[in-house]
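Entry for the shared binder. Reason: the reviewer on the internal report wants the predicted structure included alongside the sequence.
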Amino acid sequence: MAGISLSGLASGMDTNSLVSSILAAEGTGRTRLANQQTQMEQRASTLQSIQSKLSALKTASSALRSVTNWVPTQTVETSDASMLAATRTGGAGAGSYVIDIKSLASSSQKTFTFNSPAADGTLSFGATSVNISAGATIDDAVSAINQAGGDVIAVNAQGKLVVSSATTGAASTFAFSDSGGSTLALDSERLGRDMEYTVDGGASVFSATNTAKDALPGLDITGKKLGVASVTVGAPGPDKDALASKMKAFVEAYNSVLDAAHAATTEKPVKDATLQIDIKKGVLFGDQGLSRMVSQLRIGMSDAVAGLSGTLTSMADLGITTGATTGGATSSPDSLKGKLVFDETKFKAALDANPAGVRELLGAKSGTDGFAQKFEGLLAPQLGSGSGITDRIEQVNSQVSRLKTSLVKFDERLSTREDQLRKQFAAMETALAAAQARQADLTSRLSSLSNNN
């Protein structure tokens, strides 16, 4: 207690240590409460982590039944991506097309010998005109031309002034003029050219740029080098790669829940733990609530979906299984846990063979509940307010709150007890000191009387 310091001078006892020992003995219950609080907080944290993973699983399940997955699209592939690229701009005719790139588009270009002008003058290239001062260098001319921001671009190429049109194509040619008449001397000229290509051996088609807009209905073709390559346009249908990615995301989210639940229920508590890291271990060991939840999810994954019109009735038909081996082989640890694997090849084969059946099974067919709706029905009790894992978290948090209150009251009792002990020992020391003083006085008086006799 602040304000009372016990020295033990009168009694000869180490009263400070004695008070500390008494408080330590009476405070053993506090350690138990504090450890319970640590365990409850760890339990809440673990349950919240699993809850978060369940929410992510619900989101992944909802993504499977989204109708946007079935907006028609078409794949576009080229046999040689280094030769040409094809981009779909709209609906395109399904099939393969042979594209022959005969020439690539280029810009008009003029190369000049530059002579420093003796007087101010003007240089013009098409619609771009720049003023050149007397004594200007070739670099001055390059800078002036490019800063003008016109339809040409200039460079200093090993002492030659090279001016190119900013655009490509046969129509990109430009005239030039030199007001002084002696600053520029034309050395060479290259005319602009269009990209020339054919489709399926037909007549040549020309484009002012290397990207031919609507070379085929719904397709832009970009030439990269000369040669022949094919472009294949798929039939309209769902984006198989995007759907496969959502299936993978669902599997990953599901496995994440199982991993977290397995880790929580199999970690054993440490007996007589004193370190915080050990006190936190095994707080959900053998937890029946989590075990039941995992069992329900596993049953939901394996059961067929009732009420569907097609032959595809379970996620195994779409390539999602536990991956367990059959026959005499040994199942893997992951398959024993119920973790899922995804066979993308099988999924895409089912999608090619029966897209309507896949859509119905996943739950994206209007008016029909598929796998996603059924699975989300299993998750709802866990995530709903006042039930499942949400309710458990609330209960644990209430226990944590009660333990915190108990610890505060315990500390208050210990503080009061410390005050009492220190006051009692202080009173004892005072009484002892007074008694010792009276004894010393009596001894002194008796000694004086004895001496007088």
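Summary line for the report: Residues 76-103+195-233 form one domain.
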